[in-house]
Amino acid sequence: MTEPEHIHKQRSKGIYLLPNLFTTAGLFAGFYAIIAAVDGHFANAAIAIFVALIMDGMDGRVARMTHTESDFGAEYDSMADMVSFGLAPALVIHQWALTSWGKIGWLAAFVFAACAALRLARFNTQVGIADKRYFQGLASPAAASLIAGFVWLGVDFGWEGTDKSLIAIVVSIGAGILMVSNLRYHSFKQFDLRGKVPFIVIVALMLAFAVIYLHPPVVLFIGFFVYAISGPTMAVLKYKERHQEKSKSDKAA
User: Fold this and answer.
1) pLDDT of 188-246, one tens digit each?
2) C-alpha radius of gyration, the chain, whole number
3) CA-CA distance, 88 to 46, in Å (whole number)?
4) 165-180 and 103-125 helices cross at what angle (nearest 10)?
5) In angstroms, rounded to a whole number, what is the distance separating the alpha carbons of residues 230 and 38?
6) Cα angle, residue 97 at apex, residues 226 and 103 outer, rounded to 5°
7) Which of 67, 92, 132, 146 is the most buried (most CB within 10 A)?
8) Counting beta carbons within 10 angstroms of the beta carbon of residue 90, is it exposed (0 to 12), middle (13 to 18) or buried (19 or more)?
9) How far is 34 from 229, CA to CA, in rounded Å?
């Protein structure tokens, strides 16, 4: 008895190895961040989240460059992102700074994790219709990197997490709210890695790597903090611009 043709086709399709390999590496980094946080190795946990960020940036680009995009890869990437950029940062900051707050502490961490899930779900439903130049709301990898940068900065400076717990609550809830907001953030997806770029771009990248190397915890936290507040800043500037234009038109009338 032969199986139906459509089932045979589904089984023979298989999955693409290369992009899913990067996704698996990112998932592993996120899972390691959770284990490291439980064991009290918070610097390693934060670094693992940044590794997951790099892997997440690679898998999609590799898939597009090698023409190995698939529905399976997109779904797998979303599941991995929930672990690496939703659950992992929430647990890391909770274990580092929020345990002394009891229910309020885990609630703040849960808000971040829940907002990350909502952000990913909204992103998946808008694929193909959203403006690729911008993200609607802070992307979950950037929000997770803000959390990881804060924890890594604290460990590097020798801060006790419990002493910075109030700031940790504000950062966790604030990053979560930014993820589910309607604020626009530059996605930087317009850069074509296969195309030619001006020489100055290479110089700028070299300088960026050099600056990060000087003091990774400080530079990465400041970088992602600036990116996180760029959304509200652009919204305020555009509101003022529209208000000024409206005032001018009212005066002209």
Assistant:
1) 766 665 667 677 878 888 888 898 888 999 999 999 999 999 999 999 998 888 878 77
2) 21
3) 9
4) 20
5) 33
6) 115
7) 92
8) buried
9) 27
Residue 251 phi, psi dihedral angles, 5° rounding = -65, -40
pLDDT digits (tens, 9 = 90+) for 173-191: 999 999 999 999 988 766 6
Pick the CATH number of 16-252 from 3.30.1360.120, 3.50.50.60, 1.10.3720.10, 1.20.120.1760: 1.20.120.1760
**Other Cβ atoms closer than 10 A to 201:** 11
Amino acid at 239: Y
Residue with tokens 């309607």, as numbered in its chain: 182
Phi, psi of 132 (to 5 degrees): -70, -15
pTM: 0.88
Q: What count of Cα atoms within 13 Å lies in the side-chain half-sphere of residue 219? A: 11
So what's the pLDDT on residue 69?
86
Structure letter (DSSP) for residue 208: H
For residue 36, how many other CB atoms are within 10 A of its CB?
A: 21
Cβ-based burial of 35 (10 A; exposed 0-12, middle 13-18, buried ≥19): middle
Strands 134-136 and 184-186: antiparallel
Say how far residue 177 (Cα) sits from the centre of its chain: 14
d(CA 50, CA 128): 27
CA distance 150 to 139: 17
| Confidence bin at 117 (pLDDT 50/70/90) | very high
**Pairwise CA distance, residues 15 & 51, whole Å:** 24
Size (the chain), residues: 253
